[in-house]
Write a structure and sequence with these properties.
The protein is an alpha/beta fold and 265 residues long. Helices cover 32% and strands 22% of the residues. It is built from ten helices and eleven strands.
Length: 265
């Protein structure tokens, strides 16, 4: 498993620097969650742990596929793909997150190619992969047009990109203070793009990105992706509270997450 940083010799964008600091500082808080996910027999997705059988984010058989996780964190999604037969590469902006990923890969006996770097600039040749995925990785921590163009470059013709991210309705209801979302719009829906949480009073740190649904669609069309599906997972009726930022009750009434499935046309 390699540990090269493709960004070391070049100036990093401001949001990449901030998000690297943010995730290096808080990586220890996610180690236990990563351990649980690595141990799962079947994937579950997002804040509400919706079963793979419902969302079908991964091909059932990935034998012979070259796959990449863009913003892997502790790399449990990469582990799920490897167990389905894929040869898996993964990149993450946080060296501390990758330290957990390496430890868990060793403990579970799973071979992964792990890169420390920015998912907007991946150290792999054009058309290297058949499948790309991220769950709250590049989809919210990288600039949308930049990482989508990089994903397009990396995929072979017909290759699929799947990602799970914050729903724009959630972000439109997110107070500028960083407090939990409520039942009122807190910011404009049109023009959603950069959400900078560095100086907010509640839970400061990190720079997120989110687009209106039409913004995602426009980018897919401009870059050359064809849309296969859009999912809006609902928190199950028996969902346990998972985060302070959004409640299960909220996510049972309105969409907190979305899943895009697209392919390189």
């Amino acid at each position: 498993m390699s540990n090269t940083d493709p960004s070391a010799a070049e100036a990093l964008p401001d949001h990449v620097i901030e998000n690297r600091r943010h995730w290096d500082d808080m990586a220890h808080e996610w180690a236990a969650m990563g351990e649980r996910a690595w141990a799962q027999a079947e994937p579950t997705w997002g804040i509400w742990r919706v079963p793979e059988a419902e969302l079908q984010l991964l091909p059932a058989d990935m034998s012979g596929l070259e796959a990449i996780e863009l913003g892997c964190g502790t790399a449990y999604v990469s582990a799920w793909m490897a167990r389905r037969g894929a040869s898996v590469s993964a990149i993450d902006n946080s060296e501390e997150q990758l330290a957990t990923a390496r430890r868990l890969a060793d403990e579970h006996g799973i071979e992964l190619r792990l890169w420390h770097g920015n998912a907007e600039t991946v150290p792999a040749p054009d058309e290297s992969f058949d499948f790309a995925i991220n769950e709250y990785g590049a989809a919210i921590w990288c600039e949308p047009e930049t990482w989508l163009r990089e994903a397009y470059r990396l995929l072979r013709p017909g290759g699929q990109l799947v990602f799970l991210a914050n729903h724009p309705m959630l972000m439109a209801c997110a107070p500028e203070s960083g407090a939990a979302v409520g039942d009122r719009l807190a910011r404009p829906y049109f023009g959603l793009h950069t959400l900078d949480w560095r100086d907010v009073p509640v839970d400061p740190g990190g720079v997120n990105f989110c687009l209106p649904l039409s913004g995602w669609m426009s980018l897919f069309h401009e870059i050359g992706f064809a849309v296969d599906d859009l999912l809006e997972p609902q928190a199950p009726a028996d969902a346990r509270e998972a985060e302070d930022f959004v409640s299960a009750e909220w996510a049972q009434r309105w969409p907190s997450e979305l899943v895009w499935k697209v392919h390189k046309a």
